[in-house]
UniProtKB/TrEMBL annotation:
Alphabetized NCBIfam families for the sequence: PRK05089.1
Organism: Vibrio marisflavi CECT 7928
Stored SUPFAM superfamilies: Ctag/Cox11
Domain of life: Bacteria
Main location class: membrane
Transmembrane residue ranges: 12-33
Keyword Lipid biosynthesis: no
Name of the featured protein: Cytochrome c oxidase assembly protein CtaG
Similarity field: Belongs to the COX11/CtaG family.
Lineage: Bacteria, Pseudomonadati, Pseudomonadota, Gammaproteobacteria, Vibrionales
A Pfam family per the record: CtaG_Cox11
InterPro entries: CtaG/Cox11_dom_sf (IPR023471), Cyt_c_oxidase_assmbl_CtaG (IPR007533)
Function: Exerts its effect at some terminal stage of cytochrome c oxidase synthesis, probably by being involved in the insertion of the copper B into subunit I.
Amino acid sequence: MEQVEKKNKTLIIKLLVAVVGMFGFGFALVPLYDVMCDALGINGKTNTVSAIQPKGMVPDTSRIVRVEFMSHINPDMPWTFEPERKVMEVHPGQVIQTAYIAKNLSGAFTTGQAVPSVSPGLGASYFNKIECFCFNQQPLNAQSEASMPLIFYIEPNIPESIHTLTLSYTLFNISDKVKTDTASLESNSSENMEISSLQGANL
C-alpha cells in the first residue's frame, strides 16, 4: 500500500509540474512569437516614425507594385474614415502622396489614433512612410472633415515575388485617454506650483 501511495504522489507531482510547464510555455509563446515575427519581418508592422528618403534613390520603372488601401473603424469611433484612392500602381523607389479622408459624425470634439499594418507581412519592412497621420493623434471638431496626408515609398529591393501590398489602418477613439492624460498633467502642474509657492514662502 505504501508503495502504491508513493507512486500516486510521484505521479501527481509530475502531472502538476507538467501543467505548470504547459501554462508557462503558453505565456512564453506570445513574446517568442513577437520576437520571431520581428526578426523575420512577418508581423505586418510598419515604421512608427518618419522615414528619411535615401539620397539618390532611383525608381525601378521596370516593376510595378499594386498598393491597396483599406480602412477599419473601431465600433466606438463615431467617424467615417476612407482612403482617397483605394488602389494605386507604383514603382519601387517612387515617392507617392495620397490621403485618407475622415469626418467626425458626432456632436462632440473627438480624438482618433490610426494604427497601420501591411500585408503580406514580409513586405512591411519594405514599405516606408515619410509622412503619415498615424504618427500623431488626430483631433477633429464635431461634424468636421479632414484630409489626412500619407507620403510613402516602397524600397527598390522589395522581393520580386511581392506584386501586391495592402495597407490597412484601424481607427481608434482615444478621446477618454487624452482627457485622462490632460487631467493628470494639469494636476501635476498644479501640485508643482503649490510646492514652488511653499518653498518660496519658506525662504
